[in-house]
Amino acid sequence: MNDVLSQLRAGKLAGAKRLDLSCGLHELPREVFDLADSLEVLNLSQNQLSSLPDDLGQLKKLRILFASDNQFTHLPAVLGECPQLSMIGFKANQIEAVDPAAFPALLRWLILTDNRIAALPASLGRCDRLQKLMLSGNRLSHLPETMTNCSRLEMIRLASNAFQALPDWLLQLPRLSWLAFAGNPCSPWREVSPARPAISWSGLEVQQQLGEGASGLIYGARMLSSNRQVAVKVFKGAVTSDGLPASEIAASLAAGQHPNLIEVHARLDGHPSGAEGLVMELIDPEFSNLAGPPSLDTCTRDVYADGLRLSVNQALSVALGVASAARHLHEHGLMHGDLYAHNVLWRTNGQCLLGDLGAAWFYDRPNALLERVEVRAWGCLLEELVALSEDVPSALHALVARCLDEVVGSRPTFRDICEELEGMKRSHH
Known about the structure:
By secondary structure, the protein is an alpha/beta fold. It has 3 domains: 2-186, Alpha-Beta Horseshoe (Leucine-rich repeat, LRR (right-handed beta-alpha superhelix)), CATH 3.80.10; 191-281, Phosphorylase Kinase, domain 1 (2-Layer Sandwich), CATH 3.30.200.20; 288-428, Transferase(Phosphotransferase) domain 1 (Transferase(Phosphotransferase), domain 1). The protein has helices spanning 2-9, 189-192, 245-254, 312-331, 368-387, 394-403, 414-428, and strands at 18-20, 41-43, 64-66, 74-75, 87-89, 97-98, 109-111, 132-134, 155-157, 178-180, 198-200, 204-212, 216-223, 229-235, 264-269, 277-281, 288-289, 334-335, 344-346, 352-354, 361-362. A hairpin with a 5-residue loop joins strand 13 and strand 14 (229-235). The longest helix has 20 residues, at 312-331. It is globular.
């Protein structure tokens, strides 16, 4: 990255829209301001920064600022002076204080994962464009009630904090769809001490790496005792935006078996470095991800492959499979928390599997509002499937509208949805 800094200082980056600087910086180079008329994305992650210049607002086109893995102890007020700034990422700093003035008017996406924040200022409630708020791995025990004004908030991550209860008003937000809340003091005992069968690392012949997610690496492996091929997920151990590995392990083991869930066999034991992990069903390579995760521009919505088209039967099959899996989870007192197409594996016959319980969490008492928050996430998925299909029956459009109803309690349950889709499939054949 030093060559980027050299080019910047030599004036060779004129007109640049994006700048990535990761070279042990202790302060922002003044030459960055030479790009004020063009710079839209500034990535300052993995430096030694603890402050930003008071005139940062001169970067009048800056939309996205990343400053993760630095030395900040407070979220700087000057962020609020950047007129176009809509995405801010300060993951894995040592932030304890958030300045009330730190929120720019156009803020859509704020990442403060893995810091030391115990309280957020009431001014956050003025962010009426806020869609995505990542707060896992902090010391929060409450949220400012002014956030009832954040009517566009769709995703919030509150895992691994200090909450004694889930704020009641949160579940009434009209667009909330993706909520992570594991690893708080109020988490049910099932998260802390589930029955945990284990398979030893020494009983596996670990083969090639199959993939990598935010929380871990996935390998193919052979169980020596039975010669069975399995997948092994080895967690990286750090807090992610969704929470901690222990929460994902507990949820995965508690979810039980369902034809539309990726089957988890056991917890992994005895990893040479002490890492935690899961031993899972190995998925047929005919399956692929239904979509890619949201982009910087789409914020909360998945990105589908160009040219992907679905028949109505394919759309109905995927929609029903995911709804059936979600119904099963809620009947077991589990919120998936990340119900998205990018967490769905599918093949062209419409068969699908819902995976990745990294954001999943337990709730003890029946909670109709919690289920209906997740129904909105499923409704977003259905809306996307409908957009990829032709000759969609009007009943399916109507179901999308009911699942996205801004009055949370007016949405159907997953049981209602499954019954309705089964009827549609019968009549469509």
